[in-house]
Amino acid sequence: MFHTPNLTGLRKKWIPKRINEGWGLQHMKLYGIDDEIILSGYGISICKICLSDYQLMSKELADYYGRIHHAVCSLSFQILPDPHNTAGYLMDWPTSNGTVSPLEDPENFTSYASTVLGPLIQPTQTKPALEQKSSDGTYVYPVAQFTPLLKPDASTEFPAVTTILRMLSTSSAFSGARWLFTAGYFNIHPVLSSLLIASTSTSHTESTTRGTVLTASPWANGFYGSPGISGMLPAAYTHLSARFLDRVAEAQRTNSIQLKEWRRGTVGEPGGWTYHAKGLWITLPREEHPSLTFVGSSNYTKRSYSLDLEAGALVVTGDQDLKRKLGAESEWLQKESQAISRDDLRRTERRVSWNVRLAMWIVEKVGGAL
């Protein structure tokens, strides 16, 4: 069991367990067997709409993610049964781990973790000979975000995402592209938010890049109806959605960007589904289906890029069959959704109470993130 070095001392003692994941956790979802690896965005049996699940049949990729898995295991506690403990188990720090636990010495733990993980996620020094790349081929570029364990931070996911989005917002070659961004918990990193907004324009022509943000409605949020402070989370994400729409309006991009909420029934009631899909799909100008997508565990939030451990991949394809499947995937995700406006979120039943806003402020001030 991985334990973040960011939750120790008084923080660990006083922060409620229902929300202490806001200070960082192991968020990767990797399912591997033999020469195959599944990159997922969700834990097994947690939710019903949880796309961004990709099976890759490649020994090289399976080995790469296997090394990542092994490395994080070597930086984690071992869970042992203990009938005398109230929880029924104890957390043991194996002597084979090579360093002290993050609870004992967070700084030294992080320094050691940097030497273990840093080399794994960097490109190899010896590059293979350049090959003629097929225009209808598919290329997978692994990305990872290990910010809390890398000093200096050599993570690859945030640079990859921002580079792609910056191309969308600055290169005329991408004018007229379309993008779909989704995260069940919508708290998009402000840099990504700015780049997505900048990729569009105030005009409404064929050369205008258009985008859709898809997120869970409060009634499809896994924390809906949850007791205690975690029950505030659906309203907190509504508040963040409203702030995003305010930014879109201020940039005069209302005609180019829409926000959709997904809902199928109500969580906790018969037939109620939760929504936890995540990903980014980009369709190039004058094309019908996406040819680029990010897959994996990231929610693309400040927490993802500062406190959590994430693993994923950038997939770029010219294969027409795969592009059609990516298009069908992105369309299917939106079937149970509807567009939401600023006015919708200003209605009485959607207004966010002062105590939710106060709780969000407190979490941020003491080093956490949604």
UniProtKB/TrEMBL annotation:
Q: For this protein, what is the EC number? A: 2.7.8.5
**Which InterPro entries has this protein been placed in?**
PGS1 (IPR016270)
Supply the alphabetized keyword list.
ATP-binding, Lipid biosynthesis, Lipid metabolism, Mitochondrion, Nucleotide-binding, Phospholipid biosynthesis, Phospholipid metabolism, Repeat, Transferase
Cell division found in the keyword field? no
Catalyses which reaction?
Answer: a CDP-1,2-diacyl-sn-glycerol + sn-glycerol 3-phosphate = a 1,2-diacyl-sn-glycero-3-phospho-(1'-sn-glycero-3'-phosphate) + CMP + H(+)
Q: What is this protein called?
A: CDP-diacylglycerol--glycerol-3-phosphate 3-phosphatidyltransferase
Name the protein family: Belongs to the CDP-alcohol phosphatidyltransferase class-II family.
Summary of the function given for this chain in its UniProt record = Functions in the biosynthesis of the anionic phospholipids phosphatidylglycerol and cardiolipin.
Task: Kindly list the places in or outside the cell where this protein is found, as annotated in its UniProt entry.
Answer: Mitochondrion
A GO molecular function for this record? ATP binding
Instruction: Return one Gene Ontology term, BP aspect.
Output: cardiolipin biosynthetic process
